[in-house]
Every structure is written in C-alpha cells, then in structure tokens.
Amino acid sequence: MFAPAAPPPPTGKTHLRPNRCPRPGIRLGSVTRKARSRDETTPQNEPPTAPGPSLSRLEVRNLATIRTLDLSFRDGLSVFTGETGAGKSIIVDALGLLLGSRSNTDLIRTGEDDLLVTGFWGDDVASRRVTSQGRSTARLDGEVVALRELQDWAQRRLTIHWQHSAVSLLGPANQRALLDRQLPAELGAYAAAHRAWADARARLEALRASERERARQLDLLQFQATEISDVNPVPGEEEPLQADLNRLANLESIAQGAAGAIMLLSDGDENALGFLAEAVRSLNVSARYDDTTAQLQRELREALDSVQAVVGELRAVAEGQAPDPEELARVEARLGALGKLRAKYGPTLDDVLSFHAQVEQELAALTRDEQDAGTLDADVAALHAELLRAGAALDTARRDRAAPLAAELVAVIRQLGMPHARLEFHLHALNEPGAHGLSDVTLHFTANPGEDLAPLADVASGGELSRVMLAISTVLGADTPAVVFDEVDAGIGGGAALAVAAQLRHLAQARQVFVVTHLAQIAAQADHHYKVEKSVEEGRTVSRVRLLPPEERLHEIARMLSGNTSEAALRHARELLGPAHASAEAAAEPASSAR
C-alpha cells in the first residue's frame, strides 16, 4: 500500500503561466516523459514536452448537419461552445473517424451519398470517406491505405477523451499503465526477460510433450535419408544410363546390321569397294588429259578410302557386340533404384536431391532438440531467475513512483470539487510471472472522509470517475501532440471549474488541446474560441463553426454564465476574460472559415 501525503485543499487563485506553443521540429515518434515531482499546484510546473506536429486544419463534408466546414487551428487551448443541441460534438465525431472509429451511415448528411473528413498535420494529410452503402476509404497523403493503418497513424498524433471514456479507468490494465508508462526502462527489461523465459519454457514443454512423436519422426527421417544416401543419385545421370540400356538390350540387332553392311560394302561377290576401285581404274586414261576428270578421280579415291575405313569400324562393331548380361543387369538395376526414388520423393531427380537436403536439416534440428532437452531445464531455471530479478526491479520502480503519482493526482482531484478524496496504487502479487510483471496494479479510491479505500471500479460514481480521468489526463498529459476533451467537465462548476480550466491551460502549454465545453470558466481561459451554431436554411438544418472575435466572444461567455447578455453577465464575462487575454486574442487569431 502506498498512501500519499494528504495535501490541504488549495486556496486562492491558481497562477497561470503565459501560453507557450509546442516547440517546432520535434520528431514524431514514441516519446516517454520522465517522471517529475510536482506539488499540489500542478499548473505551475513545466508541462511535458509535445511529441510532434499539431493539427493545423480540418475539413469536413456532409457530416450530420454540417454541409461544408473548413477550420484552421493553432497551438494552445481551443474551445468549442454553443447552445444545447447545436452539434458541438460533431467536431469530435469527425476526428474520431480519422482515429478509426466505427463508420455509421447515420452520420452522413441526409440526401448525400457520402461524407468526407480530412485532417492536416503540417505536410501530412489523412482522410476518410464513408459512403451511404457503408463502405469506408482511408487515405494517407492521398494514397489508399487499410483502416488499421490510418488508425495507427492517427493514434500517434491525436488523443480523444470521449464524454464517457472515463470507464476505461475501470480496467486493471489501464490502471497499471498509469505507472508503467513512466517506467519504460524497467518495463522493457522485464518484457524482454519474460519473452526469453516464456519461449524457453514453451520449447521445453513442447520437447517433453512430443518425445514419442519426435522418436517416430526421427525413425522416418533416418530411413528416408539412408534410402537416398544408399543410392547416392547424381544429377543428370539418368539420360546416359537410359542410352546404355537401349544399346545393351539391342546388341544382337546392332551386330547383325553391321555384318549386313559389311557384305554390301566389301565381302559380297559384288560389293561397293569393288565397284569404286573399278570406277577409279576406268578414269586412268582420261584423267591424263582432262583436269576435271582428274579431280573427279581423286574424289573417288577419297570415297574409296572412306568406305574402307567404315568397313573396318563395322567389323569392330560386328565382332565386339557380344551380349554382357551382367552389364545389362547393372544398368537396369541402377535405373530401377533411381526410378523408385523419383516415385517416392520426386517427380524429378533434382526434387529427390532437394528432399534429401531437407531431411538432413530436419534430422539435425531434431537431434539438437534431443540434446537440448537435457540442458534446457537449466536454461529455463536461469531465465526464470533473471525474470524474477527484472520483476523485482519493476515492482521497486512501481513502488517508488506510486506514492508521488498518487499525491499529484489527489492534489488535482481535490481541486476538482472533492476536497476529501484519497487515492492509492496497490500492488498484488500474481501466482506466477505475468506478461506485465510479478504483480498486478489497481487504483483504490474514496471521495468521502472516514471511508476506507476500495477499488476504484467498486466505489467511484460516474461523476467521480470523470474527475479522476480528467486529473490523470491533465497531470500525465497524453502521448500525442493534439488532445481532445469531449465534455469531460460535465457535472463540474464553481471553483472546481476554475481548477479544471487551469489544468487544461497547463496541458495546452505543451500540447494542442481542444475542449468541447459548457463551462464559461473553461471557455474564458482558451486561446481560441469557436462557436457551434445551428440554423434552418431552405428547410434544412445546417450547423456552422466559426472563430469568435473578441466582442462576440465576450457575449458568448456572458450567455454561458447566465443565459443572457445583460450588463451584469457581460461584466462577469469581462472579469473572467481579463483585458490582457482579450487584447492578445484580438492580435493573434488565425483565419477560419466555415459554411
């Protein structure tokens, strides 16, 4: 149990720092803010650093009662106000579509085929179109992407605290994350140790559970490897073997053919050699007198020599082609062995060789598994010991941060109209190491004096839960450059409203903050004040959003205070706004347009 020191309820006005825009050029990415110690007047301390570019522009087409909307934004605190039912939360709905919220065709303006929302973060553009048929198209910089990719992209740039999102605090994982988000080193070390231990344990369990199957697989693989190794096939050897087989199987026919040719060329009573020799002799006389005849005689002599050479080779073929049954059987057996391998592991001999290589690899892996099974027990034990060390370090870091963080949150919660609130983080040991630590973390809370602390999920009312959520949001900020609060100030008024406004303005020193609010105290602290208005044009309801100039803003604050713009209400509004704030607003507002 880690109980914070109970600071007294704050008194007097909360000091506000001049608004500071986030520093430009900060690289977008996963940014972890180091824990800072804060006293009970949190807005006086330095806010966390903004993690990236802010939302510069929003375009909306055909969303609910909005026909077209084009808004430009600056850094700091922007508020959206308007009469009840004017559609203030439409802006939040539009941004929610960019965050991947479920597309509802009811959001499409009546009579239109689709709606389109486009957000600009510096040079980056994200958009989402929803058609009346329920189809949704997401784009990043004009390129069509999966909705999940748009969601991941937008979640690094925008956080929305919806009107009822405080219920997320009821989840133990979210309560644990309040501490762990500030302990990245310890959490990362534990996660790595848990992953290594879990992987080793899973492998050991798999080895133990599959010993019989592994033995069966080893026998099969060893048989297959031996069967192929015994034959020892050589790539490309089948074609020459098949040629040898054809020759050996037809030796008698080959010899008979050669003998017949010899008879015709030389051994017969009338043969080719005799005719060629006679032809050469018949040209002896004419060749003396005619060069052409002489050339032809020389060619006949060459032909005679060639035929004689062929006859010599044919005699060798005819006399040397005696059948060799052993050689024939050897070739047939080799081809049969290769064919058997192809039938089982083919269809080609190259496939057989590839299969053999794969079998050898699997055999090596199974052999390693058998060897590892003997030593993996020790490895698992060593990794478990390392996991326990990392878990103990994580729990120590959680304990060190728990009480200061609880004190920071309580200080803000008490400012929000619960002066007797108490809050603690409790660690509960798990039966075995979990993916997020050796312990679970829960928030214990009470808003009433004399009451025991109990789990937040069991004792907090809806209004109390919203204030705790608001305290967490303003104390810890958000991990994105733009943060939206959708009427999280519901049920808050009076001095608590001033404290909420101070917290939101403090957060806006490092982040772009958008607030849909009904509280004049919050609206008066804004750097930029937008009003949502609804009217009827040509029988159709149309909502507009426009940036208020100083005089109109004064009247809007007066309306929010008392429902009218009487002199008393205007005087009260001037007090809330202050002359310096009004003059600064008049000099610095960006151009906006909405139709």
TrEMBL record:
Pfam families in UniProt: SMC_N
Domain RecF/RecN/SMC N-terminal per the UniProt entry, residue ranges: 55-534
InterPro entries linked: DNA_recomb/repair_RecN (IPR004604), P-loop_NTPase (IPR027417), RecF/RecN/SMC_N (IPR003395)
Keyword Nucleotidyltransferase: no
Keyword Glycosyltransferase: no
Region named Disordered: 1-55
Composition skew (Pro residues), residue ranges: 1-11
Keyword annotations from UniProtKB, A to Z: ATP-binding, DNA damage, DNA repair, Nucleotide-binding
CDD domains hit by this protein: ABC_RecN
UniProt xrefs under PANTHER family: DNA REPAIR PROTEIN RECN
Family assignment from sequence similarity: Belongs to the RecN family.
Protein name stated in the entry: DNA repair protein RecN
Source organism per UniProt: Deinococcus caeni
